[in-house]
Amino acid sequence: MGEIPESHPRRSSLLARQKLVDAAAEGLLADSAMIAHGRGEAFDYLLGEQTSDSARSAIREASARLLTAERPVISVNGNTVVLAGEDLIRVAAVVGCPIEVNLYYRTPERIARLLTRLAEQRASVAGGPAPDGWSEDWAKAVSSVALLGDGADGSIEGLEGARAICCTNGIGSADIVLVPLEDGDRCEALVEMGKQVVVIDLNPLSRTSRMATVTIVDEVTRAATALVDEVVSGHAAQGDWDNRAALSEALDIIAGASAGE
Amino acid sequence: MGEIPESHPRRSSLLARQKLVDAAAEGLLADSAMIAHGRGEAFDYLLGEQTSDSARSAIREASARLLTAERPVISVNGNTVVLAGEDLIRVAAVVGCPIEVNLYYRTPERIARLLTRLAEQRASVAGGPAPDGWSEDWAKAVSSVALLGDGADGSIEGLEGARAICCTNGIGSADIVLVPLEDGDRCEALVEMGKQVVVIDLNPLSRTSRMATVTIVDEVTRAATALVDEVVSGHAAQGDWDNRAALSEALDIIAGASAGE
């Protein structure tokens, strides 16, 4: 798509788009991944392309729940790996949890390619600086992050076919799953299995957003960066979480943008 | 993306998505075409996936202007050909104007492929039934639609590089251009050349929407189908056209959806 000037007001959005175009060419994404990204772009545009106060609260809530869970897991798909893989590896290193590649349109080739990409990202993150506030051995914490998804041996109840496949030692036995960019059916199935589900979804009206335990209405790259800060800070939960109120605040922002406020 | 059940409430949206996935595989689309489609999907979702009253007024206004123009032209890109090619050929047959393939990310291969696809669509439309209300020789009218874009010899003033290229006997000398799914820079350049510009754009806040003479805030497939009916009916213009009011009405619908109305 050509060079993007440093000064372009929508530079981060255009860079994200370019990353996805490149990833599609490398076979990392499902056919419809770019369409899904475009839907997100439109909602992010209406949200002002910034993390709202209510999204920030949701990120803090997600962090507190991940840190206090017994068996947290981060589930990633192609778009998530491409846009936020490194920061989610940082989150996993701090939380001490595995990352599972779990795909709606599952193929062994894409699982393998995404695991390879994640392993590269993990090596890069391990060799880089620790997040501010982290005082332990960073390279060791990062290198300990297990990357799951290959040889998946479990299944998500209530789903059919390839989209039900998961890892027993990952999503299968998790008590909380962070699933950025998840689809509604799977979000619902995970909730019905009794798991807490944290999603990152730019559409506050989507079924995923409405089904989740905690919905972060934010762009996945920004949300993952903010989540790194939160898990390092280690704030406790803020009391009862009202997910409906969080969605309502996101809708107010969109309605405000549409009303020209 | 698998079978789409006849009863699926969002069947037309899913079929459109599948058409684009197929077209991308055939090399008809630019890298970012599916992202652009996704953005449109999100806005259409907020608009209720139906043609609003104000979009219908814009379609009627566009029809009246196309029918009374000296040199109307329909400019199409990959997404437009794939999603609305046949209906735009019907419009061109009734109006008696050429269709020009004009691409933001122009390559000779994509121009050639899209012209081939349009020629196939033209043959199919010519062999099919005339629209209700048409009494002349349909096959002849359709076969007369010129398909331009190859060997482009003109340029759109105020633009640089390949995106400025156009046909002198098409966009170059047009007094009105129907450009579904246009980008803001080109829309602005065409307006600055003194042309009337009719766009079809699902985002009422986009620069394209705000720059155009007449903005149809509607999904391109639905809008093109409605436009066929309008040009056959041949209604006159409705007096002064207030494009700002049309955009404002679309924004009200989106704000209403976001407010849960």
TrEMBL record, chains A, B:
It catalyses: (R)-4-phosphopantoate + beta-alanine + ATP = (R)-4'-phosphopantothenate + AMP + diphosphate + H(+). The keyword Thylakoid does not apply. InterPro entries: PPS/PS, PPS/PS_sf. GO terms for biological process: coenzyme A biosynthetic process. The lineage of its organism: Archaea, Methanobacteriati, Thermoplasmatota, Candidatus Poseidoniia, Candidatus Poseidoniales. Homodimer. GO terms for molecular function: acid-amino acid ligase activity; ATP binding. It holds the Pfam family PPS_PS. Transmembrane segments: none annotated. Keywords: ATP-binding, Coenzyme A biosynthesis, Ligase, Nucleotide-binding. Its EC number is 6.3.2.36. This is 4-phosphopantoate--beta-alanine ligase. Belongs to the archaeal phosphopantothenate synthetase family. Pathway: Cofactor biosynthesis; coenzyme A biosynthesis. It comes from Candidatus Thalassarchaeum betae. Catalyzes the condensation of (R)-4-phosphopantoate and beta-alanine to 4'-phosphopantothenate in the CoA biosynthesis pathway. ATP binds at R17, R39, D201, L202, N203, R207, T208. It is an enzyme of class 6 (ligase).
